[in-house]
Amino acid sequence: xxxxxxxxxxxxxxxxxxxxxxxxxxxxxxxxxxxxxxxxxxxxxxxxxxxxxxxxxxxxxxxxxxxxxxxxxxxxxxxxxxxxxxxxxxxxxxxxxxxxxxxxxxxxxxxxxxxxxxxxxxxxxxxxxxxxxxxxxxxxxxxxxxxxxxxxxxxxxxxxxxxxxxxxxxxxxxxxxxxxxxxxxxxxxxxxxxxxxxxxxxxxxxxxxxxxxxxxxxxxxxxxxxxxxxxxxxxxxxxxxxxxxxxxxxxxxxxxxxxxxxxxxxxxxxxxxxxxxxxxxxxxxxxxxxxxxxxx
Length: 296
Hints:
Structural class: mainly alpha
Distance between the termini: 79 Å
Order of helices and strands: HHHHHHHHH
Number of helices: 9
Shape: rod-shaped
Oligomer: single chain
Number of domains: 2
Low-confidence stretches: 1-17, 19-37, 112-125
């Protein structure tokens, strides 16, 4: 049966590991991060975006497996250590008997013929035979007393050494688990962003297909910049309450026609860029009756 201290250690380790993983899984990329990733090539390449996400999942799954194995090893070591400390009744019984035997022999020797190794019993001998007998008795008692003490010391030493060795192994495995948790945090932290990149890449893939269908030419980055400046001075989060939102001044209705939801001004620049590109591929400059003059 495990001690409360050991159970607490095992539970704490598992809870800490689970908490770290769950906390990282719950993380989402901050808006500032999304604002600075508009030049990510994967935003315009769906296959690349999917490959990056698959790679992150593969890495995370491998680290989770390693972490699970280490936590399992820690649990096994804790059980083994507790077995030695608390459940090895046979060893404890032998140690107790050895200790009791040594104590009783010392007491009996003192009561029966004087303290162990005492020379008084030799001086009290009445004959040579009696002297020889008493010498032999002293020697025999001393040997048995020494053997009992050595047996107890050996067993106690083995137990302590085993417990110490297992404790060191547990600490080593805990350090490995902590390192794996830190390593696991990286891919898990990046998975939400990778999912978001796929979302943008899918919009751009729709834009690619629409450009092919419509035969329109792709505006240059400078032409897009001029359009944005004309519409909003390139302010992606602009929301003045005039029913036009974001860098491209989408209406909610127009935003919805290219798959957008929520307020366009609350969407990251890369998403506004991708949906504006899709809108132009489908309808040309018509959605921007004034500033559309900067587009082909």
